[in-house]
Amino acid sequence: MAVVTTEELDRMLTRLKLTAIRDQLDSLLDEAVRGEMTLRDALAFLCQREIARKDQRRIDMSFGLAKFPFVRDLGGFDFTAQPSLDRGQIRDLATGRFIANGDALLLLGPPGVGKSHLAVALGREAIVAGYTVLFTGAMELVANLAKAQADGRLEERLTHYTKPKLLIVDELGYLPLDPDAAHLFFQLVSRRYGRGAMLVTSNRAVGEWGSVFGDAVVATAILDRLLHHSHVITIRGDSYRLREKRRSGLLQKPAAAHETTTVST
Fold it and tell me: Which GO terms describe its molecular function (predicted)?
């Protein structure tokens, strides 16, 4: 067999889109030699490095497309501040099984208890597991749907929000929705029902969603779909921001301790 030059090998690896092997070829071959690998083992080693590079690129691109407002992970979540929160349940959710099943996950509780942190962290875990994710604020979501409806592009926008395997809707309930917005949100939930998972954070208990949507009938229809196959985690605790102020002496500690409850259906 004719001797293959480095330039020819680079061209072949580029054509095959094996860029990780191409960019690290010398060091990878040196490592294979040091490890006294067989040809089969060396080939598997090179393929593993190529796959790792492609996986990382996919993850990095998916993080960008998800539009997370900040970077958070489960390792940075202060479970000690929410001692009743079931770590095992959160880690089970992080496996993405609820996404594969098309379930809904509701994270409920007052402001500042870590709902958005958990939402972003679980979204990032979902991407690593291979799922597509999109993060949006509730008010941004309904504003975009209303604009699309006014422009005659509602179907296109609903499709946009239906495609990801996991749609995260943050801060539902901080401001009430007008009836038109509530009906648009219902259309989206109906589209995703049975097709894709949703993660919703809210400062309102589900019993208060009638006031959030301004229509008890619409709220019931939305909850009927979200709660059919769902995991509901209600965090009853103090705001992390208020806790820091208490530590600094700016606020007094509350008289009664808070607790966290979890419910799955």
Answer: ATP binding
Residue 243 confidence (pLDDT): 61
121 in helix, strand or coil? helix
What pTM value is reported for the model?
A: 0.85
Number of other CB atoms surrounding residue 89 within 10 Å: 13
Whole-angstrom distance, CA of residue 145 vs CA of residue 161: 10
Distance between CA atoms of residues 47 and 70, nearest Å: 33
Q: Which amino acid is at 113?
A: V
The structural domains of the chain, ordered by start, are 6-64 (no CATH), 84-264 (3.40.50.300)
229-242 as b/e, with b when 16 or more CB fall inside 10 Å? ebbbbbbebbeeeb
Tell me the per-residue pLDDT of 35-70, one tens digit each, with 9 for 90 and over. Answer: 999 999 999 999 999 999 999 999 999 999 999 999
